[in-house]
Every structure is written in C-alpha cells, then in structure tokens.
User: Which sequence fits this backbone?
C-alpha cells in the first residue's frame, strides 16, 4: 500500500520520474502506470481548477508588496519588470507551439502543478483545454512507463 501512495505522491509533483521509482520499488508495469496516472490526475484536478485562485492570490501579494514599499519609502525596492526573459519565453512557446503541443508537453517538462496553471492561464477560455491536458497526461504516463520499464530494462541488460 505504501508503495502505491509513494508513487501517487511523487507523480503529483515529479511526474516524469515516478515510473522509474515504481520500477525500483518493484511494482509491475500496470501498477506503476495506474499509480502514476492517479497521482498526476489528482494534482491536475487541484491545480487546473484552482488556478484562477492561485493567480489572483499571487497578484494580490505583488500589489501588497508594492504598496508596502511605497508607504515605507523603501530605497531598495525596484518595481519588477513586466516583460522578463521568462515571460517572453513563455509567450514565445505559447505562440509557436500552439494549444495542442503546449497542453501535452508543458505539464510533462515543468511539472503537473505549474503546467496546469500555465495551460489554464493561456488556454482556460477554450473548452477543449482540460481534455487536451488529460489526453496528454494519459499519453505521457504510458510513454514514460514504457521508457522506464522496457527501454530502461534493455539498457541494464546490455550493461551487464
């Protein structure tokens, strides 16, 4: 039971490496697949549907910090730039890759929570966004399990 909960918890935040942990814990392919999938879906559900709350909370904190710095006349306070290098990169990825690739790859490479929030921020107004992310999570889980269990096993055999 603890093995499954470990994989579910790991998949919630470090999605890409949870099938490897499942293999190392001695789980079968299907046990690892479903444990990883359950963890990813729980994390996606929480962070995708609460993304608006997280974005409003983050904005309120920035505004409060700015007001506090102005009220205290803090000489070390510099107003943050609106167009940082990270923001420019994210917008470039959004415009070049489009909704399909973004919903498929961003949760995989950044993590499920951050990827879900970014996809909800950029594409939340599209009705197909949650379904695209779900399909991406299922496909990525299957591919990662295949890579860790079958390709990874072949590499270990050749090394011996």
Assistant:
């Amino acid at each position: 039971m603890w093995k499954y909960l470990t994989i579910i918890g790991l998949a919630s935040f470090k999605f890409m490496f949870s099938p490897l942990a499942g293999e190392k814990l001695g789980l079968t392919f299907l046990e690892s697949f479903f444990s990883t999938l359950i963890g990813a879906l729980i994390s996606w559900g929480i962070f995708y549907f609460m993304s608006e709350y997280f974005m409003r909370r983050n904005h309120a904190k920035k505004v409060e910090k700015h007001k506090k710095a102005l009220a205290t006349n803090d000489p070390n306070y510099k107003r943050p730039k609106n167009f940082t290098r990270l923001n420019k990169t994210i917008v470039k990825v959004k415009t070049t890759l489009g909704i399909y690739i973004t919903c498929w790859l961003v949760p995989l490479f950044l993590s499920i929570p951050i990827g879900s929030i970014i996809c909800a921020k950029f594409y939340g107004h599209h009705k197909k966004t949650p379904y695209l992310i779900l399909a991406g999570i299922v496909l990525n889980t299957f591919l990662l399990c295949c890579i860790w269990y079958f390709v990874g096993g072949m590499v270990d055999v050749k090394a011996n």
Remarks:
- The chain is about 80% helix and 0% strand.
- The helical segments are 2-13, 18-24, 29-49, 51-72, 85-110, 112-123, 129-159.
